[in-house]
């Protein structure tokens, strides 16, 4: 496999991937357009835009230490936490630590790094994306099986009885160019591939890749499936379109209009879209503009939108980014840093805030 340079464009920049048709003309399809406000909503905090907020302090002990929460799933009164260290920790609904899924290593069922995870709630099975392997566990922490694929798996999401994975390769040499490729794969529970839809093919003069811990690429709202995969290389286009997909076909569905300029005088990109999330009643977008972090939140069927610099305020000069927990029910989560007790030998685990918009 061609080696590629993987780096972080600050912690606020996102994993590299891009839609081939990311800037399709809205004339061919019925696309809903949202205009991002130029000014931030500086006088609002999270209590002004939410129906309810619940805080859960995750227990801290030597077995449950968390560096960075990459993903969070709530199922059957348990929180499944994907940590940046490459592990999945399980807590009860009150935050008490229960157990860790799997173990570090190179053997069957073992892993050292994880990029994504998902749960098949019907079969009660957990899928872990570890490099080019997809590993299956029971929710009681029993290793079931795994499969190695000929590509790197960036993201996995279970819906409609299938695992959808976004996977590919960065820096593939094609002639004098280096190509970043991504595709959407539809996979059965036995790991057989049923369909493939290309979603990225970017040619570069150099080897370049980037990664970002937080991946919220696919959501299911009723019978509608949505996908947005960000692109954060310095290309001459801002990929601002969310796609719906059905029968392995991607259809432009939602477009965000960002304030101009999108590029500086040297044609360097200023707007880097990191995530666009569709929920039942909302559109959420996390993006960078000129190195500053923003989150945009809008009602889908109302002219009611907000733009927050550095995320939404939760008071005491602390700002957070909302990420999806249950998009069909407009439930989101954020991560709040716990107060550090200098007498403690370990920095406490973060507090998770559950928000109903």
Notable features of this structure?
357 residues; mainly beta; Neuraminidase; five-stranded mixed sheet; four-stranded antiparallel sheet; 1 helix; globular; disordered N terminus
What does this molecule look like?
There is one protein chain. The strands form eight sheets. A five-stranded mixed beta sheet has the order 2-20-19-18-17, with no helix packed on it. Strands 3-29-28-27 form a four-stranded antiparallel beta sheet, with no helix packed on it. A four-stranded antiparallel beta sheet has the order 4-5-6-7, with no helix packed on it. Mean pLDDT is 88; it is low at 1-26. The longest helix is centred in the first third of the chain and has 4 residues, at 46-49. The radius of gyration is 20 Å and the shape is globular. The protein has one domain: Neuraminidase, CATH 2.120.10. 35% of the residues are buried. Helices cover 1% and strands 50% of the residues. The protein has 357 residues and is mainly β.
